[in-house]
Amino acid sequence: MTRIAHFRRYQKSPRKSGSVSASPASGRGLRAWLPLLALFTAACAPVGAQQRAASVNAQPQAAAPQPAISVPPAVLAGLPSEPDTPARAAVVAAREAMTRKQWSVLGALAPQAQDDPLGMYPEYWLLRYQLWTVPAGERPTAQLQRFISSNPDAYLADRLRGDWLLAAARGGDFETVRKLSPVRNTNSQIECAILDARHMTGQRVTAREAMEVFAPGTACWALYDQLVADRVLGWDELEPQLRDAIEANKTADARRFVQYMFEPRDQKTYDLLMKDPMKWLTRQGRMPVGRNEKELVTIALARLARSGSDISVADSYLRREWAKSLSPSNLAWVRGQYALAAALNQDSRADDWYREAGHVRMTEYNAAWKVRAALRQPRIDWKWVLASIGEMPASQQAEPSWVYWKARGLAATGRQDQAQAAYASIADRFDFYGQLAAEELGRRITVPPRPAPVTDAEMAEARANPGLRRAISLFRLGWRAEAVPEWNFALRGMNDRQLLAAAELARAENIYDRVVNTSDRTEKEFDFSQRFIAPFEGRVAAKANAIALDPAWVYGLIRQESRFITDARSHVGASGLMQLMPATAKWVAKKIGMTDFTPDSVNDFDTNTILGTNYLNMVLRDLDGSQVLASAGYNAGPRRPQTWRATFTHPVEGAIFAETIPFTETRTYVKNVMSNAVYYAAMFSGQPQSLKERLGLIVPPGAGVETAARLP
Questions:
Q1: What is the mean pLDDT of residues 582-595?
Q2: Could you tell me which of 239, 243, 299, 237 has the C-alpha nearest to residue 274?
Q3: pTM: predicted TM-score of the whole model, two decimal places
């Protein structure tokens, strides 16, 4: 049902008695100032492109958690309400002006907003605009320096430092780039700009340094332009990146690498083969000579796996026409591309083709599918699994998924001590593979002991944190896009106790996604009433119980779908707690006889949870009661898991089915939902749980229960 969620507004709801809540008249008082500001701004500049600003959706929702994981009332107070002032009204009007690109209006409003706790935002918006629009010699350098020095620990000061650094790099002002670095909230483009400045001011950058930070983008391409010109980057470094881009179907990025590697004539040849690789290949001699020609033939053969050609036709053509004339390494890479295409289509030939490719260099994505193809086999060759994991980069091998499957391989090949050590290395993680590893060690899944309650002094420190206060003000205004990075930046360097207090502050403000994400950062003290929050006073469980649906599973799904933000909206249009698509919501409403349903009601708590739980239950029934299959169906559509299940010739563990789901988003989603459900079940029941039992077996159509019963 969901894709990666983008949230439109902060869900504001009244607090429990004893906490300080925002005045109900707050919005009315703020709006009282807006007409005066509108008259002022209209006189300053013409209106630009119209864009609707976000507004607060003040649907009241009860915020008390379920009794099984109740919270000490002493820590529930949030921040006091904020008075309506002309400065706050100026902040709101400034954002509207920024959205409308009314820069002169923004310039007039910024001074009026200075006395507000959010007053730095209008000033930042104005300075950022000036950075990218005025000539370098006319930039307000003094104002930029003052803003950064006046707000040394603020998120916006660090962000402005990064903006200024990138603007300076684009203009070739490398001395300024070096003065502004480092940036705390950095990214690949900033790091590329810093390396470029270093290189251009006499400190030669190595190919390895550049490749480690590279990601497609303006600053990184500028760095590569220079390093290619200076012969720091050559064919040996660029060819793997070109092939990786082709594998990922990032054709624009691949074309940039081609410009670095080939002369104009060969670039035109590349363009032709990319349009129709089979047509181009049939016109070529079967014994390519020269590095460039061999590479172009290799790329064309690899593209056959993505060009719409039947993979069987491509494979036959490769074997018949080209296998003898390609070098072993080039043939192995092409074979690896065909194997990946087969694996993603859950074609049974994928494992054989990976074996033909051998242990050729692969992307991490392809290396993962090499192992997954092996796990799908009726008899798993654990020695091959171990060898394939061993060929992964060290950082990939350290990922919990591959630690777990390596441990399974070690156990299956008689190396029990090594297997136990590998399981133990991840068994304390609170995630899918941590749970599976713990069960392999003989442990059931339980909730860790709750830490000491957050004290009033710790809460007072959290309430006094300027970054958290700004973030809450932004959430209250409904400006989630600004609020989330402000909040996250404020968490830097916090210890476990400070993180727990910050999570409680978010709970008091009913910002449930920040409760979860903040508490998830603790390293030694774990409060599962935060990490696996269950808000809304059991109303979700009531909807689930009404149709005999497992409440723990429903909570696990909502935690993954929306993080309990009632007006969450995904990039594909799914809405509400349970992320319902409009057409699905309408269809389910009709099926269950909800006569008062309207499209606008999909974010209503009761409407969304009634429709969502009923739809989930329908999917569950259609998929033989398997929560694994139904979770996949809820995310990717109910027909897809039926298709995926049918590609197996034998029953498989639920963990193998989940690991080999061909959609990355759905694969991650299913693992997280099932892992979440285990912890919610442990909290709600007070009893140890088993993820392996919940995952069960996935039995393909026609396999029969007798076959499933024989599976070890």
A1: 92
A2: 299
A3: 0.87
